[in-house]
Design brief:
CATH class: Alpha Beta
CATH topology: VC0802-like
Shape: globular
Distance between the termini: 26 Å
């Protein structure tokens, strides 16, 4: 199964490069990613899609970055046409599943993480968030 890592990244020159160099140095392939790095803010987030092996998280943390969340995700092939992503999301909606992460991966695939796919962390209750 694929894993999404939500990495806290300082908003400074070279930080994203250092993150992806660390992942590459561990021999881990990036199957998808998205980032939210905003001008004027000190921190941002980059989501990294990997094959779920322990190497990515270890490499990220060894490079000095924080993995704020890690979750199993579904990766779904979609057609390149209007409405394709809506079609993929509809079953999540109909099942009452809340989406927690959503982005495009390589080769026209959609990455979907739902709240019920998140692992509970000690001291954190999703319902209280």
């Amino acid at each position: 199964m694929k894993t999404d890592l939500r990495v806290v990244v300082p908003n400074r020159h070279g930080a994203a490069l250092a993150l992806f160099d660390a992942i590459a140095g561990a021999g881990v392939n990036v199957d998808g990613m998205c980032g939210d790095l905003r001008r004027g803010e000190r921190w941002g987030y980059i989501h990294v899609l990997t094959d779920g092996g322990p190497g990515a998280q270890s490499a990220v943390e060894a490079a000095g970055f924080e993995v704020a969340a890690q979750q199993q995700v579904d990766v779904v092939e979609v057609g390149d046409r209007p409405g394709a992503i809506a079609d993929v999301l509809r079953p999540f909606h109909e099942a009452g599943r809340n989406i927690s992460v959503l982005y495009i991966a390589t080769r026209t695939r959609v990455v979907i993480g739902a709240e019920d796919m998140l692992e509970q962390r000690p001291g954190v209750k999703l319902a209280d968030a």
